[in-house]
């Protein structure tokens, strides 16, 4: 039950909007960040990048882009009021055929979203990107599932080499990997503790006694996770959850070895 609780109940907390990590004299910045976090459905953006040239005038390709954006907006973790698709704002024909500078052909919103190669008679779009947006950075199961779904949608799309990217993905993927390793380490510690004590002492009672101490330690860790971190899993307490079973197992091995001597 304790092991399953660590896996099922805990959520992620990236602490990206935590006041503790902002300068002490940055009161206006704190107010700004708190207002965005508490009053608006504003989180990090997700950009879909098409790194290869393709025919953007093709209606099928345009439909694929809009379908991908629609899939993103339909996710419960996403801000369904925000999208930024340069195809909806720019005159594609003018972008490809005009001889004017890019600053004239493109609105300020899209000038960083296109890589254009100018040729003699016609320009070519070598790469582009478009955006949707998370509601928050809580890192709960909806946020993680939305990230995995973005990868799935991009993989299933026929758009050439398209991939999703967000700076928050790095945090979510790292925390997911660390949580998985902590979970496996806990299972390994529980199993190894019981087997070592039972083999060394050849006593089910002694093995059960030491095993109970380990369960009490894990229960205390889960209680601290609840009291001080609201059952959230972050880069600080992940180290704590990782080190405690290792220290216990190392101490157990040395103590058991000394007893047998």
Structural write-up:
The chain crosses the membrane at residues 182-202, 208-228, 240-259. Keywords: Membrane, Transmembrane, Transmembrane helix. One of its GO terms (cellular component) is membrane. This is SSD domain-containing protein. It comes from Adineta steineri. The chain is an alpha+beta fold and 261 residues long. It folds into two domains: 2-10 and 171-260, no CATH class; 45-165, Alpha-Beta Plaits. It has nine helices and six strands, in the order αβαβαααββαβααβα. The chain has helices at residues 2-8, 27-39, 59-73, 92-97, 102-105, 141-156, 167-201, 204-229, 235-260; strands spanning 11-12, 45-50, 114-117, 124-133, 163-165, 232-233. A four-stranded antiparallel β-sheet has the order 3-4-2-5. The protein has a two-stranded parallel sheet with strand order 1-6. A hairpin with a 6-residue loop joins strand 3 and strand 4. Helix 7 (167-201) runs antiparallel to helix 8. The longest helix has 35 residues, at 167-201. The two termini are 36 Å apart.
